[in-house]
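Supplementary Methods, section 5.1.

A reviewer requested that the exact input to the structure prediction be made available. We therefore reproduce it here, unchanged from the version used in the analyses.
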Amino acid sequence: MVSSIRRARGLLIFLAWSAVLVTACSRPAQKEEGAAGGTASESPLPTGPRLFVTDEVGGVLTVIDVNSARSIATIPVGKRPRGLVLSPDKTTLYVTLSGTAIGGPGVDEDKLPPADKKADGIGVVSVSNLRLLRVIHGGSDPENVAVSRDGTRIFATNEDTGQASALDPADGRVLGTVKVGGEPEGVNLRPDGGVVYVTSEEDNKVSVIDAKTLKLVATIDVGPRPRSTAFLPNSSRAYVPAENGSSISVIDAKKHRLLQTIKLPGEMVKPMGTVVSPDGTRLFVTTGRGKHLVIIDTKTNQQIAEVEVGQRPWGIAVAPDGQTVFTANGPSHDVSFVDVASRSVKARVKAGERPWGIVYVP
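The structure derived from this sequence is encoded token-by-token as follows.
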């Protein structure tokens, strides 16, 4: 009798657990976004074009869906992410990371904490999985980054050592370093892949480096505090903004010589980020404390428009069709979507504590 009762109880327990398992297995699977810093969600992320925006204070990348103009994820990457670039195959992002404390206007740098050199490196981020895959530790205090056309070399500016470094993204080896100038910031490859332009804020010059031999081939004097470089698609010309000169240096990118200086009108115009439209007809420039995006006709080298976008816009990107420009506005904590045709801001999206750099990913 007792054994029969025990068998009956065992059967009831078995049936109860079976019901629990069937119910659990029939629930829809949840999509985890934990690796990207978000929360679990049953809805998949949008698959259209995206913006990836560095947050210098928050230590993350903010991912923005372009079609809906909304933030969809964040990716923790490390200390002080600033510059970033997309690999030629569009699968990987390289993001500069730095353990040097943030300085800038109004900051007494003598009172800053010592640099955490272990935090310096280049973060390697998967575009599809929204994950930090690894960190390449090569070069001190990297600020900006560029990548060769075949994807086998990345180039970074090392702000505190006055150098530019070339690294192998496959194994992280430092392939070479080049002494450039004080406080190098911008680094960009000429579209044909032949040379690298590095801007040095302290020395007011551009260093031209052979992308293969890593030899310094020329230096070009430009305006005070150059910040970035943008090239025409045919590699014939380069544009270098001088933040403290309210001007743009126009350079013959084959002969590496200054052709012209474009003076930008207005007060507090501090040109910083630059990008050329895919068809080469327009140069777009962020003006920092000037709060505006400036549009320049590359045929005449004349300013043709300006659009107020936010507080201290720096990073800049342009859509493949050239119809929309995106600016990262640090103190505004957001990204502005600028419609080029109407010359107006059509959306603003929150992007962390201090957005700095920005990349468009189709």
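The first helix runs from residue 2 to 26. These observations are discussed further in the main text.
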